[in-house]
Design brief:
alpha+beta; NTF2-like_dom_sf; globular
């Protein structure tokens, strides 16, 4: 059994997949962020759009999300800090030229109707 894409030591099926498939809602902002990383790693663009806050969805195109997620090889997620509504993380990946990249972001999340949503992020 391999670890989940998000770095947790349980399988994808027992970790992020139930959130991505809509079986369960992510209980915390950090859980949502981890499941969104797994969604990038697995090309689950619908989940990424659906978990983006409605006020920000017009800035996120499903086709572009899918293309970006599939153009990269996702290697590792490192959560540096989290609060109830924010998560600071580094996502390690190889770009389409197989060049190592690090996406460093401080993300903000919002809880609405018992569901967490990604609002925006500050990039380093």
């Amino acid at each position: 059994m391999s670890n989940c894409y998000c770095g947790n030591t349980v399988s994808f099926q027992d970790c992020c997949e139930p959130y991505i498939k809509g079986i369960k809602n992510a209980p915390t902002a950090e859980t949502l962020m981890r499941s969104r990383y797994s969604a990038f790693a697995t090309g689950a663009a619908d989940y990424l759009v659906n978990t983006t806050h409605i006020s920000k969805r017009k800035y996120h195109n499903k086709r572009d999300i899918l293309a970006w997620s599939q153009a990269n090889k996702w290697l590792k997620l490192e959560v540096l800090a989290s609060t109830e509504t924010t998560v600071t993380f580094k996502a390690y990946y190889l770009d389409k030229n197989l060049k190592a990249q690090v996406h460093y972001e401080h993300s903000t999340f919002k809880l609405e109707n018992e569901k967490w949503f990604y609002v925006d992020g500050e990039f380093e």
